[in-house]
Amino acid sequence: xxxxxxxxxxxxxxxxxxxxxxxKYPITVLDKDQxxxxxxxxxxxYVDLPxxxxxxxxxxxxxxxxxxxxxxxxxxFSEILEEMKKRLDAESAHMExxxxxxxxxYAPVTGADGLMxxxxxMKGSVxxxxxxxxxxxxxxxxxxxxxxxxxxFGAHNQRGEVRLQVRFxxxxxxxxxxxxVEESASSDVFxxxxxxxxxFVTEKAYQNPMFVEDIVRxxxxxxxxxxxxxxxxxxxxxxxxxxxxxxxAYIERRKEQSx
Length: 259
What we know:
By secondary structure, the protein is of the alpha+beta class. It has a single domain, classed as Urate Oxidase. The chain is 24% helix and 41% strand. The chain is built from six helices and nine strands; from the N terminus they run ββααβββαβαβααββ. The N and C termini lie far apart (55 Å).
């Protein structure tokens, strides 16, 4: 049958990215405590398209995904991207995998356990060189330093979210990145808390007030001291409890590479 995609295109314009988006797919990711974790990802896959081709072969993206079924990981990213370049006759390839990641988390006093969900994304590309970014979204709790200072009783607090992206030299654990973020907030968030736990978490936050500015700076210091991290971006957003707006702060840094 005739292959329309390989026909010439007269407009003479390269396309930077063309492919498929929103593929729901079961994947297996590495779990630091359990070994592996099964989850369901939403996957985007793209390649470049030279000006002399009318279209790309969309079905080949899904075929490649099927061939790597349940073997998608940080270690296997480059292999999939190279296969995309080869099968689609492309100069560059890009893939994004977003999925919920679950950690069994224990309450700080009673030890009551419950699953916490964290949104994670792996973004990879290969052109003249390969690139891989891990992104995590971590819920946190913050207490306002200004409110604590000026109030006779209590201080306002709220939930927030930290969105962290990193590039690295060697493998990083999702759990380690989450822990780093949670330890940089007034308090972390739990799915199950008894009264004793609520008392502990409330008092912990009160003793550790943080602006969004404090949070991104704390995380930046820790990542800056980690020789495995080569680049990072961190943004913190508070879902304010007494204001009709959110508070926000952002830092991005590329660390100098040693010769």
